[in-house]
From TrEMBL:
Family classification: Belongs to the acyl-CoA dehydrogenase family.
Pfam families: Acyl-CoA_dh_1 (PF00441), Acyl-CoA_dh_M (PF02770), Acyl-CoA_dh_N (PF02771)
Record-annotated Acyl-CoA dehydrogenase/oxidase C-terminal domain positions: 220-368
Keywords, ordered alphabetically: FAD, Flavoprotein, Oxidoreductase
Annotated signal sequence range: none
Protein name: Acyl-CoA dehydrogenase family protein
Names of the cofactor(s): FAD
Domain Acyl-CoA oxidase/dehydrogenase middle: 114-207
Gene3D superfamilies, alphabetized: Acyl-CoA dehydrogenase/oxidase, N-terminal domain (1.10.540.10), Butyryl-CoA Dehydrogenase, subunit A, domain 2 (2.40.110.10), Butyryl-CoA Dehydrogenase, subunit A, domain 3 (1.20.140.10)
Protein backbone atom coordinates (compact mmCIF):
# COMPACT_ATOMS: atom_id res chain seq x y z
CA UNK A 1 0.00 0.00 0.00
CA UNK A 2 3.04 2.26 -0.17
CA UNK A 3 2.58 5.38 -2.20
CA UNK A 4 -0.98 6.19 -1.20
CA UNK A 5 -1.23 9.98 -1.13
CA UNK A 6 -1.43 11.65 2.26
CA UNK A 7 -4.94 12.99 2.76
CA UNK A 8 -3.71 16.45 3.76
CA UNK A 9 -1.57 16.67 0.60
CA UNK A 10 -4.48 15.45 -1.47
CA UNK A 11 -6.80 18.07 -0.01
CA UNK A 12 -4.17 20.77 -0.47
CA UNK A 13 -3.93 19.96 -4.18
CA UNK A 14 -7.66 20.39 -4.80
CA UNK A 15 -8.14 23.40 -2.53
CA UNK A 16 -4.84 24.93 -3.65
CA UNK A 17 -3.72 24.17 -7.21
CA UNK A 18 -7.16 23.34 -8.57
CA UNK A 19 -8.75 26.26 -6.72
CA UNK A 20 -6.13 28.60 -8.19
CA UNK A 21 -7.10 27.37 -11.66
CA UNK A 22 -10.81 28.05 -11.05
CA UNK A 23 -10.90 31.40 -12.90
CA UNK A 24 -9.39 29.78 -15.99
CA UNK A 25 -11.74 26.80 -15.74
CA UNK A 26 -14.75 29.11 -15.42
CA UNK A 27 -13.59 31.22 -18.37
CA UNK A 28 -12.60 28.45 -20.78
CA UNK A 29 -14.84 25.59 -19.56
CA UNK A 30 -11.79 23.31 -19.75
CA UNK A 31 -9.44 21.83 -17.16
CA UNK A 32 -5.86 23.04 -17.71
CA UNK A 33 -3.34 20.30 -18.59
CA UNK A 34 -1.34 21.24 -15.48
CA UNK A 35 -4.30 20.25 -13.30
CA UNK A 36 -4.84 16.97 -15.16
CA UNK A 37 -1.15 16.13 -14.87
CA UNK A 38 -1.09 17.14 -11.22
CA UNK A 39 -4.04 14.86 -10.43
CA UNK A 40 -2.18 11.97 -12.06
CA UNK A 41 0.97 12.85 -10.14
CA UNK A 42 -0.76 12.58 -6.75
CA UNK A 43 -2.50 9.33 -7.71
CA UNK A 44 -6.03 10.73 -7.87
CA UNK A 45 -7.07 8.43 -10.73
CA UNK A 46 -5.97 5.15 -9.15
CA UNK A 47 -7.02 5.26 -5.53
CA UNK A 48 -9.38 2.28 -5.81
CA UNK A 49 -7.85 0.48 -8.79
CA UNK A 50 -6.63 -3.01 -7.91
CA UNK A 51 -2.92 -3.21 -7.19
CA UNK A 52 -2.66 -5.72 -10.06
CA UNK A 53 -3.59 -2.87 -12.39
CA UNK A 54 -1.29 -0.28 -10.87
CA UNK A 55 -3.68 1.11 -8.29
CA UNK A 56 -3.65 1.54 -4.53
CA UNK A 57 -6.57 -0.84 -3.96
CA UNK A 58 -8.46 1.37 -1.51
CA UNK A 59 -11.87 0.15 -0.40
CA UNK A 60 -14.90 2.36 -0.93
CA UNK A 61 -14.88 3.33 2.75
CA UNK A 62 -11.21 4.28 2.47
CA UNK A 63 -11.98 6.34 -0.63
CA UNK A 64 -14.62 8.50 1.08
CA UNK A 65 -12.29 11.06 2.73
CA UNK A 66 -10.45 11.52 -0.58
CA UNK A 67 -13.72 12.20 -2.38
CA UNK A 68 -14.67 14.71 0.31
CA UNK A 69 -11.29 16.40 0.00
CA UNK A 70 -11.50 16.66 -3.80
CA UNK A 71 -15.04 18.04 -3.58
CA UNK A 72 -13.87 20.95 -1.44
CA UNK A 73 -12.31 22.47 -4.55
CA UNK A 74 -13.91 23.29 -7.92
CA UNK A 75 -16.43 20.78 -9.21
CA UNK A 76 -14.26 19.64 -12.09
CA UNK A 77 -11.69 18.33 -9.63
CA UNK A 78 -14.04 16.07 -7.74
CA UNK A 79 -15.36 14.72 -11.05
CA UNK A 80 -11.84 13.59 -11.97
CA UNK A 81 -11.62 11.53 -8.78
CA UNK A 82 -15.21 10.33 -8.83
CA UNK A 83 -15.28 9.03 -12.39
CA UNK A 84 -11.84 7.46 -12.66
CA UNK A 85 -12.27 5.52 -9.42
CA UNK A 86 -15.58 4.02 -10.55
CA UNK A 87 -15.67 3.59 -14.32
CA UNK A 88 -13.01 0.86 -14.25
CA UNK A 89 -15.32 -1.43 -12.29
CA UNK A 90 -17.75 -2.53 -15.04
CA UNK A 91 -14.87 -2.72 -17.53
CA UNK A 92 -12.90 -5.09 -15.32
CA UNK A 93 -15.94 -7.18 -14.43
CA UNK A 94 -17.63 -7.45 -17.84
CA UNK A 95 -14.89 -6.63 -20.35
CA UNK A 96 -12.93 -8.90 -22.64
CA UNK A 97 -9.16 -9.13 -22.34
CA UNK A 98 -8.50 -6.16 -24.61
CA UNK A 99 -11.07 -3.99 -22.82
CA UNK A 100 -9.64 -4.88 -19.41
CA UNK A 101 -6.29 -3.62 -20.65
CA UNK A 102 -7.68 -0.09 -20.52
CA UNK A 103 -8.04 -0.19 -16.73
CA UNK A 104 -4.39 0.42 -15.86
CA UNK A 105 -4.33 3.36 -18.30
CA UNK A 106 -7.29 4.92 -16.51
CA UNK A 107 -5.17 4.92 -13.36
CA UNK A 108 -2.32 6.83 -15.00
CA UNK A 109 -4.61 9.31 -16.72
CA UNK A 110 -3.62 8.01 -20.15
CA UNK A 111 -7.16 6.80 -20.89
CA UNK A 112 -10.42 8.63 -20.10
CA UNK A 113 -13.69 6.70 -20.23
CA UNK A 114 -17.04 8.50 -20.30
CA UNK A 115 -20.23 6.89 -18.97
CA UNK A 116 -23.07 7.31 -21.49
CA UNK A 117 -26.59 6.54 -20.31
CA UNK A 118 -28.67 9.73 -20.19
CA UNK A 119 -30.82 10.72 -23.16
CA UNK A 120 -32.69 13.99 -23.70
CA UNK A 121 -35.86 12.34 -25.02
CA UNK A 122 -36.00 9.33 -22.68
CA UNK A 123 -35.04 8.30 -19.19
CA UNK A 124 -31.80 6.77 -18.07
CA UNK A 125 -32.85 3.16 -17.70
CA UNK A 126 -35.07 0.65 -19.43
CA UNK A 127 -36.78 3.18 -21.71
CA UNK A 128 -33.63 4.18 -23.64
CA UNK A 129 -34.29 5.08 -27.25
CA UNK A 130 -30.78 4.47 -28.54
CA UNK A 131 -30.94 1.25 -30.52
CA UNK A 132 -28.34 -1.40 -31.26
CA UNK A 133 -29.34 -3.73 -34.11
CA UNK A 134 -27.41 -6.82 -35.17
CA UNK A 135 -25.62 -6.43 -38.50
CA UNK A 136 -23.81 -9.61 -39.48
CA UNK A 137 -20.95 -10.05 -37.04
CA UNK A 138 -21.37 -6.53 -35.70
CA UNK A 139 -23.90 -3.91 -34.66
CA UNK A 140 -25.55 -0.76 -36.02
CA UNK A 141 -26.18 1.90 -33.38
CA UNK A 142 -28.64 4.76 -33.82
CA UNK A 143 -29.60 7.42 -31.29
CA UNK A 144 -28.12 10.10 -29.08
CA UNK A 145 -26.97 10.81 -25.53
CA UNK A 146 -26.61 14.12 -23.76
CA UNK A 147 -24.88 15.70 -20.78
CA UNK A 148 -22.07 13.15 -21.05
CA UNK A 149 -19.30 14.13 -18.65
CA UNK A 150 -15.76 14.51 -20.04
CA UNK A 151 -16.95 13.67 -23.56
CA UNK A 152 -14.80 16.57 -24.76
CA UNK A 153 -11.64 14.56 -24.05
CA UNK A 154 -12.71 10.94 -23.48
CA UNK A 155 -10.87 8.20 -25.36
CA UNK A 156 -13.58 5.60 -24.80
CA UNK A 157 -17.33 5.77 -24.22
CA UNK A 158 -19.20 3.18 -22.15
CA UNK A 159 -22.58 3.43 -23.87
CA UNK A 160 -25.79 1.52 -23.14
CA UNK A 161 -28.46 1.02 -25.82
CA UNK A 162 -31.64 -1.01 -26.35
CA UNK A 163 -30.78 -4.16 -28.28
CA UNK A 164 -33.98 -6.20 -28.59
CA UNK A 165 -36.20 -5.33 -31.57
CA UNK A 166 -39.21 -7.03 -30.00
CA UNK A 167 -39.17 -5.23 -26.67
CA UNK A 168 -36.49 -2.59 -26.40
CA UNK A 169 -37.00 -1.92 -22.73
CA UNK A 170 -36.46 -5.58 -21.88
CA UNK A 171 -33.01 -5.84 -23.40
CA UNK A 172 -30.15 -3.39 -23.03
CA UNK A 173 -26.60 -4.00 -24.16
CA UNK A 174 -23.44 -2.07 -23.29
CA UNK A 175 -20.60 -1.14 -25.62
CA UNK A 176 -17.14 0.34 -25.12
CA UNK A 177 -16.72 2.64 -28.09
CA UNK A 178 -13.45 4.24 -29.26
CA UNK A 179 -13.59 7.99 -29.80
CA UNK A 180 -12.46 7.75 -33.42
CA UNK A 181 -15.25 5.38 -34.50
CA UNK A 182 -16.60 6.53 -37.92
CA UNK A 183 -20.04 8.11 -37.59
CA UNK A 184 -19.64 8.92 -33.89
CA UNK A 185 -20.61 12.58 -33.47
CA UNK A 186 -19.35 14.38 -30.35
CA UNK A 187 -20.79 17.87 -29.82
CA UNK A 188 -19.13 19.41 -26.76
CA UNK A 189 -21.05 22.69 -26.89
CA UNK A 190 -23.38 22.00 -23.95
CA UNK A 191 -22.79 24.70 -21.36
CA UNK A 192 -23.99 24.11 -17.83
CA UNK A 193 -24.82 26.32 -14.87
CA UNK A 194 -21.90 24.96 -12.87
CA UNK A 195 -19.36 22.13 -12.96
CA UNK A 196 -17.41 24.02 -15.59
CA UNK A 197 -14.53 22.12 -17.13
CA UNK A 198 -16.32 18.77 -17.14
CA UNK A 199 -16.89 18.78 -20.90
CA UNK A 200 -20.57 17.84 -21.10
CA UNK A 201 -21.58 16.90 -24.63
CA UNK A 202 -24.14 15.49 -27.00
CA UNK A 203 -23.31 12.17 -28.64
CA UNK A 204 -25.06 11.40 -31.93
CA UNK A 205 -24.88 8.29 -34.10
CA UNK A 206 -27.05 7.10 -36.97
CA UNK A 207 -26.32 3.62 -38.28
CA UNK A 208 -22.84 3.68 -36.70
CA UNK A 209 -21.22 0.29 -37.16
CA UNK A 210 -19.41 -1.45 -34.33
CA UNK A 211 -17.58 -4.74 -34.26
CA UNK A 212 -18.97 -7.18 -31.72
CA UNK A 213 -15.59 -6.98 -29.97
CA UNK A 214 -16.69 -3.57 -28.70
CA UNK A 215 -19.62 -5.09 -26.82
CA UNK A 216 -19.13 -4.91 -23.02
CA UNK A 217 -20.71 -7.89 -21.35
CA UNK A 218 -23.30 -10.24 -22.79
CA UNK A 219 -26.19 -9.21 -25.03
CA UNK A 220 -29.03 -8.05 -22.79
CA UNK A 221 -26.68 -7.45 -19.85
CA UNK A 222 -26.47 -3.67 -20.34
CA UNK A 223 -28.63 -2.81 -17.35
CA UNK A 224 -26.40 -4.90 -15.09
CA UNK A 225 -23.32 -3.18 -16.53
CA UNK A 226 -24.84 0.23 -15.93
CA UNK A 227 -26.03 -0.54 -12.42
CA UNK A 228 -22.63 -1.91 -11.47
CA UNK A 229 -21.29 1.59 -12.03
CA UNK A 230 -24.37 3.43 -10.76
CA UNK A 231 -24.39 1.85 -7.30
CA UNK A 232 -20.79 2.93 -6.73
CA UNK A 233 -21.46 6.27 -8.39
CA UNK A 234 -24.35 7.24 -6.16
CA UNK A 235 -22.29 6.49 -3.06
CA UNK A 236 -19.32 8.40 -4.49
CA UNK A 237 -21.42 11.42 -5.45
CA UNK A 238 -22.97 11.47 -1.99
CA UNK A 239 -19.49 11.61 -0.45
CA UNK A 240 -18.70 14.51 -2.77
CA UNK A 241 -21.81 16.31 -1.53
CA UNK A 242 -20.57 15.89 2.03
CA UNK A 243 -17.21 17.38 1.04
CA UNK A 244 -18.76 20.32 -0.77
CA UNK A 245 -21.02 20.88 2.22
CA UNK A 246 -17.93 21.10 4.42
CA UNK A 247 -16.46 23.72 2.10
CA UNK A 248 -19.70 25.74 2.14
CA UNK A 249 -19.84 25.60 5.95
CA UNK A 250 -16.21 26.65 6.21
CA UNK A 251 -16.78 29.62 3.90
CA UNK A 252 -19.87 30.65 5.86
CA UNK A 253 -18.20 30.39 9.26
CA UNK A 254 -15.12 32.35 8.21
CA UNK A 255 -17.24 35.05 6.59
CA UNK A 256 -19.39 35.28 9.74
CA UNK A 257 -16.27 35.93 11.81
CA UNK A 258 -15.06 38.67 9.43
CA UNK A 259 -18.31 40.44 8.64
CA UNK A 260 -19.41 42.99 11.23
CA UNK A 261 -22.69 44.87 11.66
CA UNK A 262 -23.42 47.44 14.34
CA UNK A 263 -19.92 46.96 15.67
CA UNK A 264 -20.12 43.20 16.17
CA UNK A 265 -19.25 40.22 13.93
CA UNK A 266 -22.38 38.55 12.60
CA UNK A 267 -21.02 35.32 14.12
CA UNK A 268 -22.32 36.72 17.42
CA UNK A 269 -25.88 36.80 16.07
CA UNK A 270 -28.05 33.94 17.23
CA UNK A 271 -29.72 33.59 13.83
CA UNK A 272 -26.34 33.08 12.13
CA UNK A 273 -25.29 30.57 14.77
CA UNK A 274 -28.51 28.62 14.17
CA UNK A 275 -27.73 28.47 10.44
CA UNK A 276 -24.22 27.17 11.11
CA UNK A 277 -25.50 24.58 13.57
CA UNK A 278 -28.12 23.30 11.11
CA UNK A 279 -25.45 23.03 8.42
CA UNK A 280 -23.17 21.06 10.74
CA UNK A 281 -25.93 18.62 11.68
CA UNK A 282 -26.98 18.11 8.06
CA UNK A 283 -23.45 17.38 6.86
CA UNK A 284 -22.72 14.94 9.68
CA UNK A 285 -25.98 13.07 9.07
CA UNK A 286 -25.15 12.76 5.37
CA UNK A 287 -21.67 11.45 6.16
CA UNK A 288 -23.16 8.69 8.30
CA UNK A 289 -25.54 7.53 5.56
CA UNK A 290 -22.75 7.51 2.99
CA UNK A 291 -20.49 5.44 5.21
CA UNK A 292 -23.23 2.90 5.88
CA UNK A 293 -23.81 2.43 2.13
CA UNK A 294 -20.06 2.24 1.45
CA UNK A 295 -19.56 -0.42 4.11
CA UNK A 296 -22.32 -2.54 2.59
CA UNK A 297 -20.83 -2.06 -0.88
CA UNK A 298 -17.44 -3.24 0.34
CA UNK A 299 -19.05 -6.32 1.85
CA UNK A 300 -20.46 -7.18 -1.56
CA UNK A 301 -24.07 -6.68 -0.51
CA UNK A 302 -26.87 -5.44 -2.77
CA UNK A 303 -26.79 -1.68 -2.18
CA UNK A 304 -29.03 -0.09 -4.81
CA UNK A 305 -31.54 1.15 -2.25
CA UNK A 306 -28.87 2.14 0.28
CA UNK A 307 -26.97 4.10 -2.37
CA UNK A 308 -30.16 5.87 -3.44
CA UNK A 309 -31.04 6.60 0.19
CA UNK A 310 -27.66 8.28 0.68
CA UNK A 311 -28.01 10.28 -2.51
CA UNK A 312 -31.61 11.28 -1.74
CA UNK A 313 -30.64 12.68 1.63
CA UNK A 314 -27.39 14.25 0.50
CA UNK A 315 -28.78 16.06 -2.52
CA UNK A 316 -31.37 17.67 -0.26
CA UNK A 317 -28.67 18.27 2.35
CA UNK A 318 -26.34 20.09 -0.06
CA UNK A 319 -29.26 22.21 -1.21
CA UNK A 320 -30.07 23.28 2.33
CA UNK A 321 -26.44 23.81 3.29
CA UNK A 322 -25.52 25.94 0.27
CA UNK A 323 -28.75 27.93 0.64
CA UNK A 324 -27.86 28.74 4.23
CA UNK A 325 -24.23 29.48 3.35
CA UNK A 326 -25.40 31.96 0.73
CA UNK A 327 -27.74 33.60 3.24
CA UNK A 328 -24.92 33.95 5.77
CA UNK A 329 -22.89 35.78 3.11
CA UNK A 330 -25.72 38.21 2.39
CA UNK A 331 -25.47 40.22 -0.81
CA UNK A 332 -21.74 39.61 -1.15
CA UNK A 333 -22.41 35.90 -1.66
CA UNK A 334 -24.33 36.73 -4.83
CA UNK A 335 -21.25 38.29 -6.42
CA UNK A 336 -18.75 36.27 -8.44
CA UNK A 337 -16.02 37.51 -6.10
CA UNK A 338 -17.37 35.19 -3.40
CA UNK A 339 -16.35 31.50 -3.58
CA UNK A 340 -19.83 30.55 -2.37
CA UNK A 341 -21.26 31.79 -5.69
CA UNK A 342 -19.44 29.05 -7.61
CA UNK A 343 -20.00 26.50 -4.85
CA UNK A 344 -23.73 27.22 -5.00
CA UNK A 345 -23.82 26.63 -8.78
CA UNK A 346 -21.65 23.52 -8.65
CA UNK A 347 -23.90 22.02 -5.98
CA UNK A 348 -26.92 22.12 -8.28
CA UNK A 349 -25.32 19.58 -10.60
CA UNK A 350 -25.97 16.90 -7.99
CA UNK A 351 -29.71 17.30 -8.65
CA UNK A 352 -29.27 15.46 -11.94
CA UNK A 353 -26.18 13.26 -11.70
CA UNK A 354 -27.06 9.55 -11.64
CA UNK A 355 -30.76 10.22 -11.23
CA UNK A 356 -32.93 13.02 -9.90
CA UNK A 357 -34.48 13.24 -6.44
CA UNK A 358 -37.63 11.69 -7.85
CA UNK A 359 -35.69 8.69 -9.22
CA UNK A 360 -34.02 8.14 -5.83
CA UNK A 361 -37.40 8.34 -4.13
CA UNK A 362 -38.75 5.70 -6.52
CA UNK A 363 -35.84 3.33 -5.82
CA UNK A 364 -36.10 3.77 -2.06
CA UNK A 365 -39.90 3.45 -2.01
CA UNK A 366 -39.75 0.19 -3.97
CA UNK A 367 -37.39 -1.23 -1.35
CA UNK A 368 -39.63 -0.06 1.48
CA UNK A 369 -42.71 -1.64 -0.12
CA UNK A 370 -40.89 -4.88 -0.98
CA UNK A 371 -39.72 -5.23 2.60
CA UNK A 372 -43.22 -4.47 3.90
CA UNK A 373 -44.78 -7.05 1.59
CA UNK A 374 -42.32 -9.71 2.76
CA UNK A 375 -43.15 -8.96 6.39
CA UNK A 376 -46.86 -9.08 5.57
CA UNK A 377 -46.50 -12.49 3.99
CA UNK A 378 -44.32 -14.03 6.69
Amino acid sequence: MAGIPELNDFRAFFTGEVEAAAPEIERTDRIPPTVLDGAARIGAYRLTLPESHGGFGLSTVELLPYLEAAAMGPGAGRMLVHLSNGIWRPILRYGNERQRGIVSRIGTGDAVVAFCLTEATAGTGRDLRSRAVRDGDGWLLTGEKHLITFADRADWFLLVAASDERAAKDSLTAFLIPRDTPGFGIDATQRTMGLHGTGHAWLRYDGMRLDDAHRLGAVGEGLDVGLYFLDYSRISLSACMVGLGERALDEAARFALRRATFGRPIADRQAIQAHLADMRADIDAGRGLVRRAAEAFDRGEEVTAAASTAKLFCLNMIGRVTDLALRVHGGFGYSVAAPIERIYRDARGFWFEEGTQEIQQLVVARKVLTDAAQKEGS
